[in-house]
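batch_manifest entry 22 of 60
target: Sulfate anion transporter 1
source organism: Neophocaena asiaeorientalis asiaeorientalis
requested by: lab member K.T.
priority: normal
notes from requester: please return tokens only, no post-processing; we will run our own comparison against the previous entry in this batch. if the run fails, retry once and flag.
--- input ---
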Amino acid sequence: MEASPECTQQGRGLALVRRRPPAPPGLRESLKARLRWSCSCSVQGAWALLQNLLPATRWLRQYQPREDLAGDVVSGLVIGIILVPQAIAYSLLAGLQPIYSLYTSFFANLIYFLMGTSRHVSVGIFSLLCLMVGQVVDRELLQAGFDPAQDGPGPGANRSALNASATMPALGLQDCSRDCYAIRVATALTLLAGVYQVLMGVLGLGFVSTYLSQPLLDGFAVGASVTILTSQLRHLLGVRVPRHQGPGLVVSTWLSLLRSAGQANLCDVLTSAACLAMLLAAKELSDRYRQHLKVPLPAELLVIGAATLVSHFGQFHERFGSSVAGDIPTGFMAPHVPDPALVWRVALDAASLALVGSAFSISLAEMFARSHGYSVRANQELLAVGCCNVLPAFFHCFATSAALAKSLVKTATGCRTQLSSAVSAAVVLLVVLALAPLFRDLQRSVLACVIIVSLRGALRKVRDVPRLWRLSPADALVWVATAATCVLVSTEAGLLAGILLSLLSLAGRTRHPHAALLARAGDSSFYGDPAEFEGLVPEPGVQVFRFTGPLYYANKDFFLRSLYSLTGLNAGYAAARRKERGPGVGAGEAEPVEGRDLGPGSSAAALVPSATRFHAVVIDCAPLLFLDAAGLATLQDLRRDYGALGITLLLACCGPSVRDTLRRGGFLGEDPGDAAEEGQLFPSVHCAVQAARARCQELVAANYTL
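--- output ---
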């Protein structure tokens, strides 16, 4: 599209010619091309597909052992050493036996080593996902007649078996104990969550996880951490309390703990106090002297090793009744297909689990990629994390995702590639095959201490709320509401509340964007808001209106109110009144504008007769991100009303998407560059203003001649 003559003169002979966009292919041609590309087969195409699916086949061929091997081995050993105690501890959150956590850590590291695109992310057991899995497991155990509070062999085992005997025949669980049914529920949940993630990756829905904003994720992490902390207090005190379900879980658990505080096991309380003190002191020292430590201090492993020795030789379980980890078998169990009946029972729970795991994994992968100067593929990350859930579900594993704490340790210890994950998997494999029985006498209170200390980073996010409030009250509200709902209702309700509030916040920001009349800076071509810049002079006879947001169904009325209030003329009312009274009624006889008062600094003019004030309105469409059907209808009605009053409506700086919408909606001609587009769209505000003034001069000259 060639620029107007006025713009050519102002630009000293320079004319802008808009390129004609290529004709979009039809739906039939697009489907044919896509099908042809999908069905084409070649050796090169198959190899490229394999490399995209398994990125390790690409970067392993370029691996440089001299530069990368030492850092990968050291970081893999450190992460493997950290994984072992955390895996055993997090089994408490999931309500499963420790061996299943070790299986999960092994398979997750091995699969992500082959499929992940991030070089530094550590994928494995994650406290928030363990909590969500544990809540589903407890609910299903309760419905099956088992006692969720029964952590292992003890005096309540017989009662639990009697309660379950009536329910097991209906569910086909005659040969299935509590632990057997718990892992069946967990694997069914994990399989379906992984299927959701794989489908999201195949369909290219990696962007969906980005709609979980950082304030939402931080609030969810804090609320879930409070829930985790509450669930572990019974192990710290060594008391037996029911594992509550449903809304108000945290409050109900605290009330039960207060009622049972007098029955606390003194041995567990003293052990918990000593372990907490040592772990917190070690963490503070590690944080303070992090720059001087080449390898992080494995505090958890040291504390667990010492506590296991003390518990074994002190016979804490036999003498004081302390709850211990119990027998941990070695080797791998035979694969087992998850129960289809249980898969359908946990379909909704798997959706929230998949969404949370995807959001944390993608956000962490992108964060480390930005800080180290490389790129990741969000859809491939979804495939990798999904396969870390789908395939291990057949080997008695539960849900996994990327974990921030272990990823930071991995980076700090010199990790260069995902080969470190293979080293970590080898460390866990050694424990599974040979060393697992050594943790038989480890007290559960010690494991609870490891879990609670690992929540330090998440709970410290509370200190960010005042700064977030100063920066964005809407984001702070999302943070607080998500955390409060997680604590007071449930983690799933907290996630849902956070998503809804985030969407409402986004809609609220676009519903009332800033609107202003622009003025000109001297003889230049710059137009700005007089409330922002000094020395701007309004253009005589032309109103330049800027609406800094999209124009769609939710804010079209605000768009019109802002325009009418700032220009001092309700075009719709004036055009209707003129039509009723006949063409002799002037445009300046309009009634006062109904709308909000935008303040004296918003460049609003007094409500004086418009016929003496302006003959054209230019809308600066540069901030106009998109138009929907309602926004397009608003512009069409506005052009009609202004035309009835003898006022010209021009558009400036329209983006390609806005131009296409205007063309498809009939606001412009069907072909790019036709007369309708030439006369209404301009590449800059200054060009539109000059065109409006030229038209006014031509009209005045024609009237004078007549």
